[in-house]
Amino acid sequence: MPIITVGVLALMHSVSGQVGVLQSKLLKADLHGCLVTVTRSKCPTYIGQSGIILMETQNTFKIIRKDNCVKVIPKAGSVFSLQFRDFIATLYGNHLRYKSADRSARKFKTRPTIDL
Q: What does pTM read for this prediction?
């Protein structure tokens, strides 16, 4: 496990048992250094791509894979999964379409998600 994800792991332990609080904190978290996998996407070539998040822009993630190849994955129309020990978090790319600095200060409303 990369050492960069220790902050996200500490976040998971601090709100254990409170699912709503965990979801809002995970949505606002800085995801740089997290291991992410694309579970669903409108473009089938992105499905199954996994790696560590190097850079996050408003509309894309830049990830580095095990073969040292950098890939740009669009957030729109994609579903990502993050794994922390026994917990798997599913993040919808359409909800992440803000810069990480803007997401941390933003107040989100709960809305139903339309499945791809």
A: 0.71
